[in-house]
Write a structure and sequence with these properties.
By secondary structure, the chain is mainly α. It contains seven helices and no strands. The chain has helices spanning 3-13, 18-25, 29-38, 44-54, 58-63, 82-92, 96-110.
């Protein structure tokens, strides 16, 4: 499977519209549609943003293989569930004011 096919497969699995990805990448819908129609090689500058948006490692997007665990610098497991991925994706679409309110609310219920 080509990386572009894997990307569209992940969008389908996660029930994410292509238009959401386009908005995140800042490209026209026709750009991403063109990648699909031509089975194009994904442009290098979009590999990491696509991975970030879909919650994938670059290794998985490019090769279909993935490391067992993704850990941050403090050895904390990164995004472990679909619900966590969706929460982070939704957070990215909030305005700065909404983000600040969300963080305040989160801090108030976790302290």
């Amino acid at each position: 499977m080509l990386p572009v096919q894997r990307m569209f497969n992940e969008l389908e699995i996660k029930n994410i519209n292509t238009s959401e990805l386009c908005k995140f990448l800042g490209v026209a819908n026709s750009t991403v549609s063109g990648w699909k129609l031509r089975n194009s090689t994904l442009p290098d500058k979009y590999i990491l943003p696509i991975c970030e948006f879909l919650g994938l490692s670059p290794e998985y997007l490019l090769s279909g293989k993935d490391s067992k665990l993704e850990l941050d610098d403090d050895n904390v497991l990164l995004i472990t569930t679909l619900q966590e991925k969706q929460l982070i994706q939704n957070f990215r679409y909030l305005s700065n004011t909404q983000k600040e309110l969300f963080v305040q609310l989160f801090n108030s219920i976790t302290n």
